[in-house]
Design a protein that fits this description.
By secondary structure, the protein is an alpha/beta fold. It contains six helices and seven strands. The relative contact order is 0.23.
Length: 165
């Protein structure tokens, strides 16, 4: 459901991609808890942007690792931001899932399909789930990973970035 519409939004042109990334960084998106979040507002932190869905088995498998990374590195200037969407009718189901999985990081959950496709376009589109993008403290993409992540992978990626900062 999530991957197909986002896959159609991939870009080839470099100038357009740069502009789309800037726009995505500045786009205010709703979070599951009713707040608004922009990635620009997280500059100064190392951010793992994780595109996922509740129906995706590898997404569910990686959640405990993301929760552990958030708990381990939050005080050092790191945050995970989950990105998912569906229609409004699924919001309460998603909230129950987040509570059951003890997700301790913000979840971008916006029901505006066009806005979410535009947001994903800034990162080159999303062709599969899960997809994780690691952003440095300036908001630059330094790593893109398709598939589930594990805590050892996250440690290897995050530790050097927190030391540099």
């Amino acid at each position: 459901m999530l991957a197909a519409p986002l896959a159609a939004s991939a870009q080839d042109d470099t100038a357009g991609a740069s502009s789309a990334l800037t726009q995505s960084m500045q786009t205010p998106l709703a979070t599951l808890d009713g707040k608004s979040l922009t990635l620009d507002g997280l500059k100064g932190q190392v951010v793992l942007l994780n595109f996922w869905a509740t129906w995706c088995p590898p997404c569910r498998e990686e959640i405990p690792h993301l929760v552990e990374a958030q708990r381990t590195y939050k005080e050092r200037g790191f945050t995970v931001v989950g990105v998912t969407w569906s229609d409004r009718s699924a919001q309460s189901k998603l909230a129950r899932f987040v509570a059951r999985m003890r997700i301790n990081y913000p979840i971008i959950y916006d029901t505006d399909r066009a806005k979410m496709i535009q947001f994903a376009r800034g990162f080159g589109g999303v062709y599969a789930l899960p997809v994780s993008l690691l952003l440095d403290r300036e908001g630059r993409i330094v790593r893109l990973h398709t598939g589930a992540v594990t805590m050892p992978m996250l440690e290897k990626w995050i530790e050097p970035m927190l030391i540099e900062g």
